[in-house]
Structure formats: C-alpha cells, structure tokens
Design goal:
binds zinc ion; 21% helix; alpha+beta; five-stranded antiparallel sheet; DNA primase DNAg catalytic core, N-terminal domain; 2 domains
C-alpha cells in the first residue's frame, strides 16, 4: 500500500523538479533539487527516485544525498508533506518505516507461560492481601482497576526481596522498606526486572528499579494502559 502511495506522491511532486523523467515502474530520474545538480550543464540529471523494499527513496549521484521519499517531499514540497504523512498513517503505515529502518521482528508473546504467580518469600500478590491493607488503600487511591491487583506485588522489605530474586543485583542502595512491586516480563514471560514503588511519600526515591536480566528495557503494558500510565 505504501508503494502505491509513494508513487502517487512522486507524481504529485514531479512538477517541483527542474527536470523529471520516468525510467521504469519504480525508477525516476530528476535534476537534483538539493544540490542543483550541474551548474554548467543544465541537462544533467543525477538524482534518482528508486524502490527499496516497499518504499521509494531518493539518491543523488552528484551530492550523495540519500533520503526517504518522505524527507525529499519535506524539502521540496513542504505543503504536501503533512498530507503525505497523514495518508501513510491512514494506510496503516507508521510514517517511520519510510526511513530505511529494518523491520523489527518481535516474537509473538507466549501467554501460555504467563508467570503471574511468581513465588518469592518476600512478596505477596496484591490480590491476596487482607482487606484494608495499606497497599490496597494505595492502589485504590491511585484508581488501579482491581483486575490488575493479581499482577502487582507487595513487599515489607524491598531490599530483601531484591536479594532473593537476584542475589547478584549489584546495587548498594536498595531501600529496606515496604513497597508496591511492579514486575516486568519479556516476551516469554520471564521476569526481567522489578520496580519498587514507595507507598508513603517520605523520601525522593519513589521508584527503585532492579534489573533481573540484562538487555531488556523496562516497559509495562496491559490492555488498558491509560489506566496504569501513572502507577
Ligand atoms: Zn544532488
């Protein structure tokens, strides 16, 4: 879809070039609008719009400019650029894929192995806390939907918990206080990190993260992320 959209916009901007010629289905030769091409020879056309993957790109053999079609449009026809970006979004493109990024292959999450019931001595799942517990009061105060309580934990001693989960965490300053614990999982539902949220705001270290497995960024998403965007 993006290729036909790119072709449509190539035609729309064709009049913005000093010289424009179609050389193939997905190949166009132009006089480079970035460097102006040759000053002496008005006939020179060393810019090419060409196909790479499912997108069109621009390359000039005089100034070596290399751009996505989107960025070329931005330079030579800024009035059309917004429209182009909007149309790419509408067709399901993210507006970024036309920059030559390689597609990121994200493995399908294996929910069958979801480890929402990790057993550690030093924490308790929030949905198992007794009614009226101050951690539950905190969750209620932050309007966390009850269906997510089973995904969150409470510890009376965050330092002990971190030592238990990962004895080699290497952190010297881990608070030995009670915290709400937010676990992080990778795509295979392996615990990769935890973050301890202080329940009583009496020091600056509200959130203290601890990485269990390296090379994973910490991100927490659920089906209703807006409700949990500020834990
Ligand atoms: Zn050029």
């Amino acid at each position: 879809m993006s290729l036909s959209l790119d072709l449509k916009y190539t035609h729309l901007v064709s009049t913005r070039f000093e010289k424009f010629a179609r050389k193939g289905d997905y190949l166009f030769n132009v006089r480079c609008p970035i460097c102006g091409d040759s000053k002496k020879n008005k006939a020179k056309m060393r810019g090419f719009i060409y196909k790479k993957g499912n997108d069109l790109f621009y390359k000039c053999h005089n100034c070596a400019a290399g751009l996505s079609l989107g960025n070329l449009i931005k330079q030579i026809a800024p009035d059309l650029h917004k429209e182009y970006v909007l149309e790419r979004y509408k067709t399901g493109e993210d507006g970024l894929s036309n920059r030559g990024h390689k597609a990121i292959n994200i493995p399908t999450p294996r929910f069958d192995k979801l480890s929402t019931d990790l057993r550690y001595d030093n924490w308790e799942r929030c949905d198992r806390l007794p009614a009226g517990h101050f951690c539950l009061n905190y969750l209620e105060g932050r309007k966390i939907p009850k269906e997510f309580y089973s995904k969150l934990y409470f510890t009376t001693n965050y330092q002990k918990l971190c030592d238990e989960i990962n004895p080699n965490h290497g952190k010297e300053k881990l608070s030995a206080d009670a915290r709400l614990v937010i676990p992080y999982f990778n795509e295979y539902n392996v615990l990769t990190a935890v973050s301890g949220r202080l329940i009583i705001n009496y020091v600056m270290l509200w959130y203290v993260p601890m990485i269990v497995k390296k090379n994973y960024c910490m991100a927490w998403t659920v089906s209703i992320p807006t409700k949990l965007s500020r834990l």
